[in-house]
Each structure stands twice: as C-alpha cells, then as structure tokens.
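Q: I have two molecules that I believe assemble together. Could you output structure tokens for the complex as a whole instead of separate predictions?
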Amino acid sequence: MDSLMVFLGMGGYAAYVWPALAVAAVVMIALLAQTLRSLRAREATLAALKEEPRGGGPAAEDA
Amino acid sequence: MKRVMHRFATPAQFLRLSAAILPWSAGLTVVLFAVGLYLALIGSPPDYQQGESVRIMYVHVPAAWMAVFVYAVMAAASAVALIWRHPLAYVAARASAPIGACFTFIALATGSLWGKPMWGAWWVWDARLTSVLILFFLYLGYIALMNAFEDQTRGERAAAILALAGAVNLPIIHWSVEWWNTLHQPASMARLGGPTIHGSLLAPLMVMALAFGAYFVTVLLLRIRSELVARKVRAIRLVRVQAAEEARLTRQARHAEA
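A: Yes, here they are, computed for all two components at once.
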C-alpha cells in the first residue's frame, strides 16, 4: 500500500505526470472512437444505399 | 510513373492491403503501449536532475516526433496529389490531418505540464514552442480549408497547396533549438555523434515512439477506409440525382409533345 502511494505520488510531481498521461490517453482514445464511429456509420449508409436502389438511405454519412 | 501508380494504388487494392495490415498494427499498438507504459512508469529510474517529472518525456517526445512526421506524410501525399492527381493521395492527406493535429495538441499540452515544474512557466514564447504552435494552426487551417468549398476537389487542392507551403515550418521546428536561444533543451537523439540520452531512459522512449507509430498506422488506415466509403456514397447519390433529373426532363419533354 505504501509503495503504491509512493508510485502515485511521483516524487512530488503527481500533479504534472498524471494529467500529462491522461491528456494523451483521452485525446488518442477519443480520436480512435470517432474514427470507428464514423467508419461504421458510413458503411451502414453505403449498405442501405445498395440495398434499396431507389431509396435515399439514412443521412448518417458525417456522423 | 503515373500509370504505374494508378494501376497499383487503386482503392480496391488499398482495401485489400489495409485489411491485411490492420489486425497486426492494432495488435502491435496494444502490446507496444503495454510494454512502453510499464517501462516508462515502473521499469525505469527517475532522472538525476528532473526526478520523476522526466516520465512526462515518454509521452511528450513521441507525440512531438509524430506531430512533425505526420505533417511530412501529409505534405508528401499532397505533393503526389497535386503533381499526379492521384485520388488516393488526397484521401491519405485528408486522413492524416486530424491525427497530426491530435499529436501536436498532446505535445503542446504535455510540454506545458512539464514546463511548469521544470521552467516555472506553463508557456514561454520560445522558438521551439512557437514553431510547434504554428504547426498546430497549420493542421487546423488545412482541415478548415479542405472543408471550406462546396466543390470537394477545389477544397482538396487548396488545402494541398497550404500543406506544401507549411512544410517550410518543419526544418524551422527541428533547428529552432540551435538557431535561437531557447529554454527548450536541444535534441538528444537526432544529433551528430550519437544520442546523449542514457540507455535506461532510451529504451522506454523508443518503445513508446514505436507505439505511437503503430497507433498512427492503425488510425490512418481506418480513416482512409472511412473516406473511401464516404466517396462511394457520394458518387452513388450523385448518379441517382442525375438519373432522377434526366427522368424528370424526359417526362416534361413528353408532356410538351402531347
């Protein structure tokens, strides 16, 4: 438990080290999530367009 | 050259190649980040001058390297797109921009969090910091310009020219720490005479850099794929709108005849 507190304390730099890691993690995970979400929405739109040749399909292209 | 490129770099071939690479690059990203973070946080000693705050370096430096590298990729793809009009090159450049902007943001934010305890300031108008801030605005300007036109091809061409002009900033970023008196420390890796960084800090740094690289490849392939799907959707819709318009005109003409 003590060694965990020492680790989390980061030699007094906890207020800088952990936010730096958190910023990087949040930005990179958010970008990946947005990329996957948009890819799936566009693939669904394409599939709908192909399925009903005369229909417009959902307008979820730029999600 | 043009013919070879157009024959071997078609969207269909890209989709096949990316489907083969994606599972590997995604898996590699996870493994490299697991190992890299372990080495960066637990498996390496604190710096003799900077203490534990040096651990910010393992995120800050790879993000800054990638910020510059992704811009170089984007500028190269833009050049190929402008010279040979290769459609896949425009797609690659467009797909890179948001990733590069994210890396640049991470480099600036983590640099700020490192600067506060080490320099006593969140931000200084130092040559290195300022040129990286300009890089961030170049990415944002590129994205804005690309989407500023009704006609997508015009937006892409204008943005490609901006990307090429902005490439002047890359050597400025690299040598800013030597050309000007800066608070930012000089390069400790890419220098004549070999790296000046100690081995115990070098290993986690290299693993983290590879992790960032694998992440870039993964997200880039996904975004190119997504953009290709979006283009297919747009093309199908255009064809249908044109067909509907033609049918309407034919009906009108027939109506006028009767």
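A: One point stands out. The first helix of chain A runs from residue 2 to 9.
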